[in-house]
Amino acid sequence: MFITFEGTEGCGKSTLIRNLSTRLQTLGVAHIITREPGGSRTAEEIRKIILNEEMDPLTELFLYEAARAEHFRNTVAPALKQGKWVLCDRFTDSTLAYQGYARGIPLPMIRTLNRIASNRKSPDLTFFLDLPVEIGLARASDPNRFEREGVVFQNKVRKGFLEIARKEKKRFRVIRVSELDPEQVCEKVIRALKSHLRKSL
Ligand code: TMP
């Protein structure tokens, strides 16, 4: 299984991935945790540049895709080949939501680059943790470039994710996290995974 986790800033992805990993370990499911941008040596170097330097939106897009090409080929594909599950914090949908819906780069161009960078591999399931952006931003202690862009930008990102989720109902699971504690979010994800596995048997 290739599972990706998406959301606006401060939505609780990292906590969920940690909790889910613990549950999978108990169940004996071999898996890796990884992230974008990053997840391999060179991609982590690219991450530092993207998150810290000001740049043209097109440069930013190419760097995300470059990091993805590195990460996919060096980390994701080998793990899947070994039969491991891959839990990935952000993937191609983030590029559509941030660089496309929020920054305004045309979506068809991003889709093309996404396909090239990820070798046309689509996640089996994508969880979008939906949280009002004001709550998420209030949680950021050391805001990165994107968090500093504020509520208007983050709302565009959120609307983008919701639009993608509407278009890709089979792959997307939207979880409204504002009234759930981390354990409840993890339970929902596990239930969705079980149901997906039953259906695909
Ligand atoms: P993170 O804070 O969840 O680790 O993500 C890093 C930042 O990168 C976050 O602000 C979202 C942004 N991002 C994009 O803008 N486009 C992308 O394709 C990816 C993967 C992340």
How does this structure look, described?
The protein is an alpha/beta fold and 201 residues long. It is built from 9 helices and 5 strands, in the order E-H-E-H-H-E-H-H-E-H-H-H-E-H. The chain has helices spanning 13-27, 41-52, 57-81, 92-102, 107-117, 133-139, 145-148, 150-167, 182-200, and strands at 2-7, 31-35, 85-89, 125-130, 172-176. Strands 2-3-1-4-5 form a 5-stranded parallel β-sheet, sandwiched between helices. Helix 2 (41-52) packs antiparallel against helix 3 (57-81). It is globular, with a radius of gyration of 16 Å. The mean pLDDT is 95. Thymidine-5'-phosphate is lined by residues 35-37, 64, 90, 94-95, 98-99, 144, 146.
Count of discrete alpha- or pi-helical segments spanning 4 or more residues: 9
CATH topology: Rossmann fold
Strand content: 5-15%
Oligomer: single chain
Give the CA-based shape: globular
Low-confidence stretches: none
Mean pLDDT: 95
Any idea what the CATH superfamily is called? P-loop containing nucleotide triphosphate hydrolases
* Termini gap: 13 Å
CATH architecture: 3-Layer(aba) Sandwich
CATH class (first level) name: Alpha Beta
| Helix-strand makeup class | alpha/beta
How many individual domains?
1
Layout of helices and strands, plus pairs?
Layout: E1 2-7, H1 13-27, E2 31-35, H2 41-52, H3 57-81, E3 85-89, H4 92-102, H5 107-117, E4 125-130, H6 133-139, H7 145-148, H8 150-167, E5 172-176, H9 182-200
Parallel strand pairs: 1-3, 1-4, 2-3, 4-5
Helix pairs in contact: 1-9, 2-3, 3-5, 4-5, 4-8
